[in-house]
Amino acid sequence: MAQIYRITEQYSGESFECEAGQSVLKAMEQRGMKCVPVGCRGGGCGYCKIQVLAGEFECGKMSKVHVPPEALEKKEVLACRVYPLTDLTIECRPSQSGLASKQTKTTALR
Amino acid sequence: MKKGVMRPGHVQIRVLDIDEAVKHYTDLMGLIETDRDDEGRVYLKAWSEVDKFSVVLREADEPGCDFMGFKVVDEATLVQLQKDLVAFGVDVEQIPEGDLKDCGRRVRFSVPSGHAFELYADKLYTGKWGVTEVNPEAWPRGLEGMKAVRFDHCLFYGPELAATYDIFVNVLGFHLAEQVLDPEGTRVAQFLTVSMKEHDIAFIHHEEPGKFHHASFFLETWEDVLRAADLISMTDTSIDIGPTRHGLTHGKTIYFFDPSGNRNEVFCGGDYTYPDHKPITWKAEDLGKAIFYHDRVLNERFLTVLT
Ligand code: FES
């Protein structure tokens, strides 16, 4: 049986289980939670950006525009490409996800 | 086509992992791999297309669209359009023959929305895939997945729609088929065509320049769109929205993402246009219905998730 890790999102206080080999974003979606915004699910759009505050993880390929080396150092990564190796504490603030800034960019369409 | 731009010819898409991407565009979408080059780029086409390729995949560390190319009727037209672009104040770059395999010289330019486009006159004519030129059968056997019929159009997000419109309409001879106007009368979406299709290319206003919304592929029927949806589930592919219908163009559609997060569409149907048709207008206040005719509300993701 696959190892199960607990992911806790600090800003919302939500927490959910994630199987080894499953991305944090996918695990969150599967359990019907919404603490991280869901975009392309492919490491391309930057929509699901989080910061990992505690715990070990591996990353799949992510767009350099959204995760430059400086961001990676701060463990600011894309939840759709984060695979936990231990329990994780993550944080996704609405502003941090880029959502707020992106929303102003489309005001012309609102 | 009044200035000799004939149709969308190709799109070069950046992907994070070339093998995963090739699998997606061939096994799932049903494109056919036709070649690879020294730079590692992979060339693909849909079966009904007559030229050697329409999609080029390039591995990079950031996904998105490098450029979209339009085929013009002949070399004389290419020479003329290049002159016209320069006269209009657009910088052009010469890409030599063979830079893309079996493709003639290309004239590349950028538009104020921040996107790169190309014009070219020649590409190797390989004929429709899997059917003969004389007494062709209805469709070829051996197609995979969604069996995409052709590369149809792209939608780009960026600023400066009016200046971009000027280049496409006044210099390149495109025709405005559909638009979205805000209450002040500013065009916030423009669907442009050189054919009878409602769009060969489309732009939606967005402050950040040069963003790629999707590349779209044509399917014949609504049943094919539903089958595409089934395949998306079977392969656990990242879905965006659909199957549904657009208000704009009235096409029946489904959106999903490639493994690097670039959005794809497959669709069928859609209205037609002739050069004497006035543009169809949707109001920005009714954008939900304009984009998703059934739900009549926008999903945030459609407006903000881009590569
Ligand atoms: S959802 Fe697009 S990068 Fe994660």
From TrEMBL, chain A:
<dbReference type="Pfam" id="PF00111">
    <property type="entry name" value="Fer2"/>
</dbReference>
<protein>
    <submittedName>
        <fullName>Ferredoxin</fullName>
    </submittedName>
</protein>
<dbReference type="InterPro" id="IPR036010">
    <property type="entry name" value="2Fe-2S_ferredoxin-like_sf"/>
</dbReference>
<dbReference type="InterPro" id="IPR001041">
    <property type="entry name" value="2Fe-2S_ferredoxin-type"/>
</dbReference>
<feature type="domain" description="2Fe-2S ferredoxin-type">
    <location>
        <begin position="2"/>
        <end position="96"/>
    </location>
</feature>
<dbReference type="GO" id="GO:0051536">
    <property type="term" value="F:iron-sulfur cluster binding"/>
</dbReference>
<dbReference type="InterPro" id="IPR012675">
    <property type="entry name" value="Beta-grasp_dom_sf"/>
</dbReference>
From TrEMBL, chain B:
<keyword id="KW-0223">Dioxygenase</keyword>
<dbReference type="InterPro" id="IPR017624">
    <property type="entry name" value="Catechol_2-3_dOase"/>
</dbReference>
<keyword id="KW-0677">Repeat</keyword>
<dbReference type="Pfam" id="PF22247">
    <property type="entry name" value="Diox-like_N"/>
</dbReference>
<feature type="domain" description="VOC">
    <location>
        <begin position="150"/>
        <end position="269"/>
    </location>
</feature>
<protein>
    <recommendedName>
        <fullName>Metapyrocatechase</fullName>
        <ecNumber>1.13.11.2</ecNumber>
    </recommendedName>
</protein>
<dbReference type="InterPro" id="IPR000486">
    <property type="entry name" value="Xdiol_ring_cleave_dOase_1/2"/>
</dbReference>
<dbReference type="InterPro" id="IPR004360">
    <property type="entry name" value="Glyas_Fos-R_dOase_dom"/>
</dbReference>
<dbReference type="InterPro" id="IPR029068">
    <property type="entry name" value="Glyas_Bleomycin-R_OHBP_Dase"/>
</dbReference>
<dbReference type="InterPro" id="IPR050383">
    <property type="entry name" value="GlyoxalaseI/FosfomycinResist"/>
</dbReference>
<keyword id="KW-0479">Metal-binding</keyword>
<comment type="similarity">
    <text>Belongs to the extradiol ring-cleavage dioxygenase family.</text>
</comment>
<keyword id="KW-0058">Aromatic hydrocarbons catabolism</keyword>
<keyword id="KW-0560">Oxidoreductase</keyword>
<dbReference type="Pfam" id="PF00903">
    <property type="entry name" value="Glyoxalase"/>
</dbReference>
<dbReference type="GO" id="GO:0008198">
    <property type="term" value="F:ferrous iron binding"/>
</dbReference>
<dbReference type="GO" id="GO:0018577">
    <property type="term" value="F:catechol 2,3-dioxygenase activity"/>
</dbReference>
<dbReference type="InterPro" id="IPR054560">
    <property type="entry name" value="XylE-like_N"/>
</dbReference>
<feature type="domain" description="VOC">
    <location>
        <begin position="7"/>
        <end position="122"/>
    </location>
</feature>
<keyword id="KW-0408">Iron</keyword>
<dbReference type="InterPro" id="IPR037523">
    <property type="entry name" value="VOC_core"/>
</dbReference>
<comment type="subunit">
    <text>Homotetramer.</text>
</comment>
